[in-house]
Specification:
mainly beta; Thiol Ester Dehydrase, Chain A; 2 domains; 2 helices; 10 strands
């Protein structure tokens, strides 16, 4: 794409290195979700900067790990996240050029355990070498899912739309959850379609910042209703997307299940 990294594809670009990081501490596997806790995506932030990055270029990943926990007054574990920040560099003219950044808030859970037993009561042994940190005021985990929206106002020209969706098996991962990248692809498609429907050129949109929050993931066959907010400014746009579960009658849930915010420049004419 004009020799740019594609922002949602950072999840795949970083995947092999991320796997090596995790597997160096514990061999996370499909079956591990039945016993020991495994890390699954809860909140993800991805960003690219429009830097030229030629196909086949060798990139360097630099990781930082944190264990972020919340405990009650008795010391009982309430929330537990493995947080992985990654900077992605391209070697250009004997210097390192930052071409991408990511932040993964991975909830530690047992996705295949019986209901009521999925939240571990202790930090997994493989991660006890990390010191526990409390979440900071500006951490992604402290931004409520309800904040993933825009309202009509002075920010720019505002557009809103709602549309039904359904997910199929080819969009799922090994835990039978819809894959992270599939939400991002669907959200970008829907925002581009909305932008085109209001008479604009969707070919100008460059999605360079994406944050996505999973409260309740979808599985194949589940229906969703999606709310879209789009703000157009002079040379950039902002978008917010909220996925709601729907029951058999098509009535959507009161709470947001998955939400995403994105923004980027409007290029060309």
């Amino acid at each position: 794409m004009d020799s740019e990294l594609v922002t949602p594809s950072l999840s795949h670009t970083l995947g092999p290195g991320l796997g090596k990081v995790l597997n160096s501490y514990s061999p996370w596997s499909y079956d591990a979700g039945r016993g020991d806790a495994v890390p699954i995506n809860h909140i993800v932030r991805l960003e690219t900067f429009g830097q030229r990055c030629l196909l086949g270029a060798k990139l360097q990943q630099e990781y930082r790990l944190r264990l972020v926990t919340t405990r009650d007054q008795s010391g009982k574990l309430q929330r537990r996240h493995l947080v992985i920040n990654c900077d992605l560099f391209d070697q250009v003219n004997s210097s390192q050029l930052l071409v991408g950044q990511s932040e993964f808030w991975m909830a530690l859970t047992r996705p295949f355990a019986p209901p009521g037993e999925r939240n571990p009561v202790e930090v997994p042994a493989a991660l006890t070498f990390l010191n526990e940190h409390q979440p900071g005021e500006n951490d992604l985990v402290n931004r409520p899912i309800e904040s993933y929206r825009y309202q009509p106002g002075k920010e720019g020209r505002f557009f809103h739309h709602s549309v039904p969706q359904v997910f199929h098996i080819n969009q799922s991962d090994l835990y039978r959850h819809i894959n992270t990248v599939r939400y991002m692809e669907r959200a970008q498609d829907l925002l581009a379609l909305l932008y085109q429907k209001v008479g604009r050129n969707a070919g100008r949109m460059r999605f360079r910042q994406i944050s996505i929050y999973y409260r309740k993931p979808f599985v194949p066959g589940q229906r969703a209703e999606v709310d879209l907010d789009l703000v157009e400014q002079e040379d950039q746009f902002k978008g917010a997307i909220r996925f709601y579960h729907c029951d058999g009658e098509g009535v959507r849930s009161q709470r947001i299940s998955v939400a995403m915010k994105t923004q980027g420049p409007l290029t060309g004419n």
